[in-house]
């Protein structure tokens, strides 16, 4: 979930699969925004000798729209190259890796970072090294030292990192995809009531898995359009963010004497803005198409937001638990609350002191009001919990986006646009039952925020074997 295996074709191409996207005003540097895009999901930490890496044949990009048209005004592009140190060894490393230029590290990866604005490309850095995958304590005695070495402050003001991190997304995949079971309410499920006598303990299916992250911390002046003022009520304070991966249109497989080659223009194969949009909103038959389109084309999918399948499933799967939602579904009223949250941003006047509306163009983007300062005490339910600095105002690494999305679909946000609607009592409590506390690798207080990747030697923990 989020977007770890959200569409049939991209699930076959994990190197180009965007799994999570985060965008938030940086807590320790509120004059900047931090953007993190995760790729290569579901990494088993012990998966050697060919440990996980970015694709040399993939173009990874984080896009920022600052005028609400669903097209990028600023793009940060990451392009990778891989070098083999010892062509006669099958090993990832032949001894301890104690620095980024260690001779013991056999497969090193580098990247070029380009900033694109108004069609003009400005290369910010050449051949920045990534840290290695976290093989184990003998191979990498001081992993965090290598992460610090691979974190760069550029002369143009950005801070950047690309490499392996612990997957911080928490979700009970096994239960949710077993006919929409929520373990805290499994005894109320239409089929589960014949099996379960009490609530169950949720399981974080992604815990102890790794991902590859591209992360950039950018001064606000480089992502916002020019304006006379940037207040919380000003449109110029709001940006839309999404990430994409692209491949060349033509790939030619080599034979015994020729290497593989790629040609033709770049074509988009993966996209991610709001968590769960393609995963839960877009129907199976259209998921691959959605991944190829820009956000400016998302009006094609508005009807699936207005009448989401999940909203109809909740009353069916949990009989008598969501009677008000069931009546709303039967009325066939378009869910204007979900359209605002996912496609246009929330207009002013609905929530005191808050808006992240970008205009009339319907586009799936993480919308972030950069004038809202980071919260001193973040609430994992974000805006639903009264914390205006959290999802759906951007997304922080600890935000419980699954519970927020479930509650919104269940009807808690309908009163924003229809004061005559009363959400079901269960709507404000529905949850898979997980939080950031269920992520073994703790989040960091500063850049790059996602936790230290799990190492192969201790996964699963030796004590459990």
Structure description:
The protein is of the alpha+beta class. It has one domain. It is built from 9 helices and 12 strands. It has helices at 143-149, 173-176, 277-281, 287-292, 302-306, 309-317, 323-331, 336-344, 401-412, and strands spanning 18-26, 29-43, 59-65, 74-84, 107-117, 120-129, 152-153, 159-166, 210-219, 238-252, 261-272, 366-369. The strands form 2 sheets. Strands 3, 4, 5, 6, 10, 11 and 12 form a 7-stranded antiparallel β-sheet that branches. A hairpin with an 8-residue loop joins strand 10 and strand 11 (261-272). Helix 6 (309-317) packs across helix 7 (323-331). It is globular and about 70 Å long. The mean pLDDT is 96.
Using brief descriptors, characterize the structure shown:
alpha+beta, seven-stranded antiparallel sheet, five-stranded antiparallel sheet, globular
Outline of this structure?
With 465 residues, this protein is an alpha+beta fold. It is 14% helix and 25% strand.
Give the uncertain stretches in residue-range form: none
- Overall average residue pLDDT: 96
Major β-sheet, in short? 7 strands, antiparallel
* Helix run count: 9
**N- to C-terminal distance:** 28 Å
| Structural domain tally | 1
Number of strands: 12
| Helix-and-strand structural type | alpha+beta
The coarse silhouette is globular
Strand fraction equals 15-25%
Radius of gyration: 22 Å
Order of helices and strands: EEEEEEHEEHEEEHHHHHHEH
Share of helix, binned? 10-25%
């Amino acid at each position: 979930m989020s977007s770890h295996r959200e569409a049939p074709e991209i699930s076959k191409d994990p190197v180009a699969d965007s799994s999570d996207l985060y965008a938030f005003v940086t807590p320790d540097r509120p004059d900047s925004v931090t953007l993190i895009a995760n790729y290569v999901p579901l990494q088993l930490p012990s998966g050697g000798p060919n440990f996980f890496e970015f694709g040399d044949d993939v173009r990874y990009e984080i896009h920022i729209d600052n005028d609400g048209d669903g097209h990028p005004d600023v793009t940060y592009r990451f392009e990778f190259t891989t070098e083999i140190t010892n062509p006669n060894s099958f090993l990832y490393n032949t001894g301890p890796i104690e620095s980024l230029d260690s001779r013991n590290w056999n497969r090193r990866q580098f990247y070029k970072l380009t900033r694109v604005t108004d069609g003009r490309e400005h290369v910010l850095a050449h051949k920045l090294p990534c840290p290695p995958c976290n093989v184990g304590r003998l191979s990498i005695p001081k992993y965090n030292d290598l992460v610090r070495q691979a974190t760069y402050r550029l002369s143009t003001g950005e801070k950047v990192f690309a490499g392996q991190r612990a997957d911080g997304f928490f979700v009970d995949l096994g239960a949710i995809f077993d006919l929409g079971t929520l373990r805290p309410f499994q005894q109320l499920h239409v089929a589960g009531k014949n099996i379960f006598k009490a609530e169950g303990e949720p399981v974080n299916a992604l815990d102890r898995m790794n991902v590859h992250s591209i992360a950039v911390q950018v001064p606000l002046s480089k992502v916002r359009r020019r304006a006379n003022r940037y207040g919380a009520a000003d449109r110029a304070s709001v940006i839309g963010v999404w990430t994409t991966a692209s491949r060349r249109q033509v790939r030619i497989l080599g034979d015994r004497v020729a290497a593989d080659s790629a040609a033709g223009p770049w074509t988009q194969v993966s996209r991610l803005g709001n968590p769960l949009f393609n995963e839960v909103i877009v129907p199976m038959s259209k998921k691959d198409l959605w991944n190829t389109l820009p956000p400016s084309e998302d009006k094609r999918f508005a009807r699936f937001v207005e009448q989401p399948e999940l909203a109809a499933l909740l009353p069916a799967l949990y009989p008598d638990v969501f009677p008000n939602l069931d009546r709303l579904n039967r009325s066939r009223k378009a869910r204007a609350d979900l359209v605002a949250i996912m496609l246009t941003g929330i207009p002013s006047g609905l929530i005191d002191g808050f808006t992240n509306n970008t205009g009339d163009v319907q586009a799936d983007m993480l919308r972030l009001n950069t004038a809202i300062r980071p919260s001193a005490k973040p609430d994992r339910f974000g805006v639903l919990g009264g914390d205006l600095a959290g999802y759906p105002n951007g997304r922080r690494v600890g935000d419980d986006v699954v519970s927020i999305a479930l509650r919104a679909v269940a009807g808690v946000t309908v009163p924003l646009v229809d004061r005559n609607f009363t959400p079901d009592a269960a709507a404000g409590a529905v949850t898979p039952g997980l939080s950031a506390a269920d992520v073994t690798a703790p989040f960091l207080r500063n850049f790059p925020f996602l936790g230290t990747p799990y190492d192969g030697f201790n996964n699963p923990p030796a004590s459990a074997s």
